[in-house]
Design brief:
The chain is 60% helix and 11% strand. It is of the alpha/beta class and 373 residues long. Strand 3 (108-112), helix 7 and strand 4 (140-145) form a beta-alpha-beta unit.
Length: 373
Amino acid sequence: MSELNPLQRLSTLGQSPWLDFIQKSFVADGSLKRLIDEDGLRGLTSNPAIFEKAIASSDEYDAHIRTLDSEDDTRTATQVFTELALTDIRDAADLFAPVHEKYNDDGMVSLEVSPALAHDTEATLAEARALHAALNKPNAMIKVPGTEAGVKAFEELTADGISVNVTLLFSVSRYQAIAAAWIKGLERRLAAGKPVDNISSVASFFISRVDAAVDKELSKVGGLAAETLQAKTAIANAKLAYGHYQNLFNSDAWAKLAAAGAKPQRLLWASTSPKDPALPDTYYVEALIGPDTVNTLPPATLAAYRESGTPHATLAEDVATALEHIETISSMGIDLSHITSKLENDGVNSFIASFDNLLQVIDKKRASLKKSS
C-alpha cells in the first residue's frame, strides 16, 4: 500500500478535509470524484462568491439557463440561480454519498441561503426549509449565517431535523451561542420523540480574516512586541473555541443526548487561505489539526497541503499561550469583540454584494442568450 499523502493523513488525526469550491464542469468531468477517491476528500462547501465566479467566468451554465428560460422565461434571476445551484449541489451530493454512508458525519455538501436574509429569522427559516426539501439528499447541509437572527433560525432548523452548516463565525462568544442552540434544538427533538441520530451540524469558524483585521491594529500600535504578535490571533481565537467544544461535548449535560445517538457539532475551519502573502499557503491548516474537526480548503490551499503539508496534532497545543495572547492584545487596546462583530457584518455584506453581482451576471447571460437564439 502506498504511503498516505499529507491531505490523506489529516483524517488519521481526526480532521476531515472538505473542499471550498464547486463548479459544474469540476463535478461533471471527474475532477471532484478523483479528489474523493485519491485524496480522501470528505465534503464540500459553497457560497455566493464561489457560484458568482463559476457562472460569470464560464459558459458551461448557458445550456441550463436556456432550458430554464424555454420552460418559463418569467423566472426571476434568483429563481434561475437556485435551479442552477440545486443541480450542482445534488450532483456533488451523489458523488459524496458513499462517503456519507461510510462515515455518517462526513460526505456532506453545503448550499447557502440568500445572504440578504442574514438578519431575518423567519425568512431564513422559510428559505432553508425550501432548499432542504428541494435538495432531498441525506448528505445535504443548508448554510445559515451565524448572526443573531441565524442563531434563532439554527435552533428551529435543528428541531426540524435539518442538517445545518452555521457560517460566518468569528467570535468565541457567538460560537458558544451556536453550540448552545444545537443542544437546545436536539433536546426539543428528543422531547418530541423524534430521532436525533440522523442529523449533523458544523460551526464554520473563520480564520484568516481575523488576523487580517487584528494585524492592522497591531501595526498601528507599532513596536517589536506588537510585531511579534502578528499572524497569531486567529489561531489563538480558534484554539479557545475548540477548548469550549471539548468542554461542552464531554460534559454530563451532553451525555443524555449522546446516549440517544446525537453527534457533537464539529468546528469547521473556514477562510484558511492566508491573506498575508508572506505566510505559507499551509500556515493555518498546519496550526489547527485536531480530532473531530473539519477544514474546508479552497483548491489552491488543498493542492499546496497535498504537496507540502506536515500534519501532526497541533490544535490542543499551547492553549494557555492562546489565552495569554488574547489578553495581551486586549492590554494593547485592541478590542477583539468589536473586530469580530465588524467582520461578521462585513462578511454578510460581502456575500450580499457577490449575490447581487451573480444575479446581474445571470440577467446579462439570459438577455444575450435570447438574442443569439
